[in-house]
Amino acid sequence: MKDRIIKSACNLFWRYGIKSVTMDDIAKDLGISKRTIYQHYSDKEAILALVIQQEITSQKCEMEKLDEQASNPIEQMMYASRQMRDSLSDMNPTLLYDLKKYYPAAWDLFQTYKHEYIIKSIRDNLVQGIEQGFYRPDIDIEILCILRVEQVVMAFDPTLFPPKKFDMMRTQMQFLLHFLRGILSEKGFEYYNTIKDKSAIEFNTHEK
Fold first, then answer.
1. Domain-located, residue 21
2. 170 in a structural domain
3. 20 to 30 A from 185, CA-CA: which of 5, 11, 51, 82?
4. Which pLDDT score, from 0 to 100, does residue 201 have?
5. 141 within some domain
C-alpha cells in the first residue's frame, strides 16, 4: 500500500503540479479512504519527500547508463538532454516552481541533488571536453557549471516562461544549444555538425 500511495502521488504531481494535488485526490485515485493514507504517511509533504527521493535515484541510474553509452563529452551532454526530455515530457511545468515556493524540505532534497550530483556531472563533462579538445580551453568551468544547471531550473519557472506561451522542452533545448555552441572548440563544432542531424534528440529548432 505504501508503494501504491507513492506511485499514485508521483503520477498526480507530475500531471497537475504539487500544490493543486490534495490527499483527497490521492485517495480518490487509489480508490481508498484518506484515513488509509494517513495510517502510512503523516501528510502530503512526507509523501512528496519520498517521491522526490525516488525520482532522484531513478535519474541517477538513467544518467549512469547514458554516460556509458556516450563516446565523448558532446554526446554525453546531448544524451543527457534526451533523457531529460523523455523523463520530463509528461511533467507539469509548475512542479519545480511549486516545490521551491511551497515545500522547502523537499526543495532542499532537490538542491542537494543539484549541487552534489548534477553540478559535479557537468563539471566532469566540461573537464573531459577540454582535455579531449572538444571544448574551448579558456572557459570558466565553475561558472558554467552553475549556469547550465540554473538554465535547466529556470525553464520550469512559469513566471518567466508561461506554459501557455512557451513549450518547456523547446525552451530546454534552446538553452542546451545556446550553451553547447558557446563552449565548443573548432574541433568540437566540426564534430557537433556531423551528429546533430543524426541524433535521436528532437531539438525542435530551426538551427542549421
1. no
2. yes
3. 82
4. 42
5. yes
Structural contact between residues 4 and 30, judged by C-beta atoms closer than 8 angstroms: yes
Within 10 angstroms of residue 103's Cβ, the number of other Cβ atoms is 19
Half-sphere exposure of 52 (CA within 13 A, CB side): 25
The pLDDT, as a whole number, for residue 198 is 57
Report the helix count and the strand count for the chain, using DSSP H and E.
11, 0
Rounded distance between C-alpha atoms, residue 106 and residue 93, angstroms:
17
80 pLDDT above the threshold of 60: yes
Range of the domain at 159: 44-195
Write the burial class of residue 119 (CB in 10 Å: 0-12 exposed, 13-18 middle, 19+ buried). Answer: middle
CB 26 within 8 A of CB 37: yes
- Please report the sign of the dihedral spanned by the C-alpha atoms of residue 95, residue 100, residue 105, residue 110: positive
Cell numbers for 181, please give them: 555552441
Q: Residue 111: which CATH number? A: 1.10.357.10
DSSP-assigned letters across all residues of 13-53: HHHH-STT--HHHHHHHHTS-HHHHHTT-SSHHHHHHHHHH
Grid cell locating 11: 503520477
Whether the Cβ atoms of residue 196 and residue 180 lie closer than 8 Å to each other: no
> Is residue 32 a part of any domain in this protein?
no
